Amino acid sequence: MSRLDAKELAALAISIKDWSAALGFQQTGITDTDLRLAGERLEKSVAEGRLGDMDYMWKHGSKRFQPEELVPGTVRIISVRMDYLPPQDDAETVRRDPASAFISRYALGRDYHKLMRKRLQQLAVRIREEIGEFGYRAFVDSAPVLEKPLAVKAGLGWMGKHTNIINRHAGSWFFLGELYTDLPLPLDNPVSTHCGSCNACIDICPTRAIVAPYQLDARRCISYLTIELSGPIPEPLRPLMGNHIYGCDDCMMACPWNRFAAPTPETDFLPRQGLDQASLLELFSWDESAFLKRTEGSPIRRIGHERWQRNIAVALGNSRPQPEVISALRRTRPRASALVKEHIDWALNQLGKQKNAKGQRG
Ligand code: SF4
Asked: How many angstroms does the Cα of residue 258 sit away from the middle of ligand 1?
């Protein structure tokens, strides 16, 4: 039982939002722990096999949709969002250039997990200064937390047809974080959805991963294929991946609500190592030690050098049959792992086909 009365809790909720804004979160909402609907949807996705290899999505069982099981005593979740879009972003030009490497905007800068968790921790300390000890635990992009449904319930935005959260005034380029707490704070209301008859994200998805509005088949999603999938990328999907080597923002770039997205004020999220405009050949030339050094502190590091090379080999196969591309693939092949070798062979074959077709056209 909270020692605060309803009036004090209402005042505390207002203060929490102010402190949260001062800590750099663009928005804060509060919701309860009832995730039955989201849990049912997750179970359906698992049953239909739409989550691919992402076994972490269900291995936590009911803890994912029963927050009080994950952190005993939890009655509310404080959900926060933080913008990450770099200023002067030229993603569209990069996406259209087959010689450039497209990396998802969220991964261009320093890993967000640490920064967000630290800020959430600071928010908890500020609350404690005000009311004394209370129960809490901070999460950022954590497997047992259904962060998107929580954000929707907390009023941070609505679930778009691409299954990302959209905010009317800020688009969808933001990270989410949560503070589970035992404080029975007043609840915020969800907002209405505003996708209407728009289908831009569904139409643009290169691999047709959005199989129906609000339904993503992760096994076809380029984010999943380049980041989560550890084995070979299914061959029919490779030509559709273009120059995406880590994640994919196509659905978000197509979304009209991202006209309202604001650039991030966080210097940690600014592009590092020139990753916002790097060429495929430059990134393919990184050996394992260069990869580890240059991705230090970056979320990209977690996929490891092998998947990095696998992804770039596919993108090179989708580029132009320039002599320097073909020789880079041939040069790398003898030292590559079996997985990468197979993707290099595919790329060389694709480029060969392009060359032949060009030769035949004269
Ligand atoms: S692109 Fe259109 S349908 Fe897709 S999330 Fe944005 S508004 Fe909704």
From this structure: 10
